[in-house]
Specification:
This protein is an all-alpha fold. It has 5 helices and no strands. The chain has helices at residues 31-58, 64-75, 80-119, 126-143, 157-183. The two termini are 50 Å apart.
Length: 190
């Protein structure tokens, strides 16, 4: 079946439609086969966990020689093909954890910024806010303009105090994340 090309480009040809064959097969395994599969999965899970730990231990000092060293260690307990898959997966896990750590640091820094800005503003109760908004609306109407957007601090001294405590915790967490990032440490849970 030929498709009409609306805007033809000289020297370019349309790619043929994808023609793939999908075969579904059911594997009928007995209990002995399943025992082998369970043993293999346990073995490769242990290999993967130990290799992730080795990858995390190298931190930012990881290069091709370190990767080759890790692959040789895993190859001693499996085949070279599986060792390559295990070490590649460990590198992917490390990269994902590092990206998550960077993203988390950004979120913590944004939370610090928001809370710090609001802590700089004076505390206004709900009644005070309504009064200030009504005054601004009256001034705006008298001057023939739209009311300005008023920014308020927290609603009570208790909330202000709790947010100061929260800010201290966030600053401490950001410091820990920065130290881990500079040291090349990531935290991976398997």
């Amino acid at each position: 079946m030929s498709h009409r090309v609306r805007y033809p480009v000289k020297g370019a040809h349309q790619a043929p439609p994808v023609t793939t064959l999908r075969i579904r097969g059911r594997v009928r395994a007995n209990e002995a086969d399943m025992a082998v599969v369970r043993a293999l999965s346990g073995h490769f899970a242990a290999l993967g966990a130990s290799d992730v730990a080795a990858r995390c231990a190298t931190g930012t000092h990881h290069d091709k020689t370190e990767w080759a060293k890790r692959k040789r260690e895993v190859t001693a307990q499996s085949s070279s093909r599986w060792a390559g898959r295990v070490t590649k997966h460990s590198n992917d896990v490390y990269a994902t954890a590092k990206g998550n750590q960077k993203r988390h640091l950004g979120e913590v820094e944004r939370a610090i910024e928001v809370i710090a800005k609001k802590l700089d503003l004076p505390v206004h109760s709900g009644a005070e806010r309504k009064k200030l908004l009504a005054e601004e609306a009256a001034r705006a109407k008298a001057q023939g303009r739209k009311p300005r957007h008023l920014v308020f601090g927290y609603r009570s001294e208790t909330e202000h105090y709790q947010k100061r405590r929260r800010l201290q915790h966030l600053v401490a967490r950001a410091d820990r994340l920065l130290m881990d990032t500079r040291a090349g440490r990531v935290h991976v849970a398997l």
